[in-house]
């Protein structure tokens, strides 16, 4: 079962699955098929984010999506709402500027671990410190996937990438601990396979007054190929079978190492702090 077919800008007929019926007015079918690799989790995130936006209680015209460079960069372009695709690492300051200019907007940044935490890392910690009233979704696939498979700030120690062919020597960021320590009001982590939990966190994110961070673990075939872990489906199996949900976990225990035997998920932080702007 599917929705009525539409012809895209490339002349291809595309039909959305029946499960997209409730959000078909938010999806730009004319731009499909999307560019993401088979097995990538970004399609799942697109569906859940569209559904959360639609059910947020906030008018669609108030929502704005900002993306930087990388696999996540095209996500906003598949949604029928105001979206900006900006330069590498600069999505957060762009989003903060939008919010300062028009505090009524609900501004959401979607970016990868490299875009948000490396090139944009300085912006991330200071936006959290100021508790800027924006949302940041970090799609953590443990690598720079689109730009060549280089290591990122979340690549586990020992993992092989194009820039660490003998195994990565550096310790990765513990994203929830970093966000909390910097000052974020809301911090959560899910995989793309925990769809209901992730959807609920996205809904909650829109209610938070302050800097809200949702880390989303997503498979990448570039990462699995480099580390002889099979394909994206094999990494999906790891992300499905090994996580433990512990909302009260000690944030210092949320590191993800190369074995991925310990992946803790949950809604870790929700607190009220004064916001600097908005």
From TrEMBL:
Principal EC category: oxidoreductase
UniProt-listed InterPro entries: 2-oxoacid:Fd_oxidoreductase, THDP-binding, TPP_enzyme_TPP-bd
Enzyme Commission number(s) from the entry: 1.2.7.11
SUPFAM superfamilies in the record: Thiamin diphosphate-binding fold (THDP-binding) (SSF52518)
Matching CDD domains: TPP_OGFOR
Domain of life: Archaea
Alphabetized GO MF terms: 2-oxobutyrate synthase activity; pyruvate synthase activity; thiamine pyrophosphate binding
Swiss-Prot/TrEMBL keywords: Oxidoreductase
One Pfam family this sequence matches: TPP_enzyme_C
Domain Thiamine pyrophosphate enzyme TPP-binding positions: 74-216
Assembly notes: Heterodimer composed of an alpha and a beta subunit.
Protein name, entry field: 2-oxoacid oxidoreductase (ferredoxin)
Species, as recorded: Vulcanisaeta souniana JCM 11219
């Amino acid at each position: 079962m599917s929705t009525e077919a539409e012809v895209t800008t490339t002349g291809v007929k595309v039909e959305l699955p029946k499960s997209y019926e409730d959000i078909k007015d938010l999806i730009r079918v004319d731009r499909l098929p999307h560019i993401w690799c088979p097995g990538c989790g970004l399609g799942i995130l697109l569906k859940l984010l569209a559904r959360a936006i639609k059910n947020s209680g906030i008018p669609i015209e108030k929502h704005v999506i900002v993306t930087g460079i990388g696999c996540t960069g095209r996500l906003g372009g598949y949604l029928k709402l105001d979206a900006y695709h900006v330069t590498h690492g600069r999505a957060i300051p762009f989003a903060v500027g939008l919010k300062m200019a028009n505090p009524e907007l609900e501004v959401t940044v979607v970016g990868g671990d490299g875009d948000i935490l490396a090139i944009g890392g300085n912006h991330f910690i200071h936006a959290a410190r100021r508790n800027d009233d924006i949302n940041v979704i970090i799609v953590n696939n443990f690598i720079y996937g689109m730009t060549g498979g280089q290591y990122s700030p979340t690549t586990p120690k020992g993992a092989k990438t194009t820039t660490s062919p003998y195994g990565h020597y550096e310790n990765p960021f513990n994203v929830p601990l970093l966000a909390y320590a910097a000052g974020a009001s809301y911090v959560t982590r899910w995989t793309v396979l925990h769809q209901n939990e992730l959807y609920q966190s996205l809904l909650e994110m829109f209610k938070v007054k302050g800097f809200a961070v949702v880390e989303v673990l997503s498979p990448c075939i570039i990462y699995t190929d480099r580390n002889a872990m099979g394909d994206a489906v094999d990494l999906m199996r790891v992300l499905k079978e090994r996580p433990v949900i512990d909302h009260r976990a000690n944030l210092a225990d949320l590191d993800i190492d190369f074995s991925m035997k310990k992946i803790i998920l949950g809604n870790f932080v929700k607190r009220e702090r004064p916001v600097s702007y908005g």
